[in-house]
Design goal:
With 122 residues, this protein is mainly alpha-helical. The chain has two domains: 65 residues, Winged helix-like DNA-binding domain superfamily/Winged helix DNA-binding domain (Arc Repressor Mutant, subunit A, Orthogonal Bundle), CATH 1.10.10; 46 residues. The chain has a three-stranded antiparallel sheet. α1 packs across α3. 11% of the residues are buried. This is Mnd1 HTH domain-containing protein. Pfam families: Mnd1. It comes from Saimiri boliviensis boliviensis (Bolivian squirrel monkey).
């Protein structure tokens, strides 16, 4: 007998993001609680928790308009976030390589005029 295995939190998050990316629409919590179990197999009890974790990580936007909370996420925002992250990492890499090169030059300058003796090697 095979038991139905529940989804992990990360699987729920990716499936919830698929809902936003596929429909490219704005939702309220009650709409997502109806859609997620039917389309993606996320239990309606955990939809709010998963949605809140996505909002906390800035993957889904949330805006309170009147008495309602509206949630949305578009693929272009995710693409721009990845590009910004990539640019930041590339700049860190270039800064690190420049620092490495300058330190190598300073090591070479420090070695000039110093002779290698047995005492210095120890």
């Amino acid at each position: 007998m095979s038991k139905k295995k529940g989804l992990s939190a990360e699987e729920k998050r990716t499936r919830m993001m698929e809902i936003f990316f596929e429909t490219k629409d704005v939702f309220q919590l009650k709409d997502l609680e109806k859609i997620a179990p039917k389309e993606k197999g996320i239990t309606s009890m955990s939809v709010k928790e998963v949605l809140q974790s996505l909002v906390d990580d800035s993957m889904v936007d949330c805006e309170r308009i009147g008495t309602s909370n509206y949630y949305w996420a578009f693929p272009s925002k995710a693409l721009h976030a990845r590009k910004r992250k990539l640019e930041a990492l590339e700049s860190q890499l270039s800064e690190g390589s420049q620092k490495h090169a300058s330190l190598q030059k300073s090591i070479e300058k420090a070695k000039i005029g110093r002779c290698e003796t047995a005492k210095r090697i120890k």
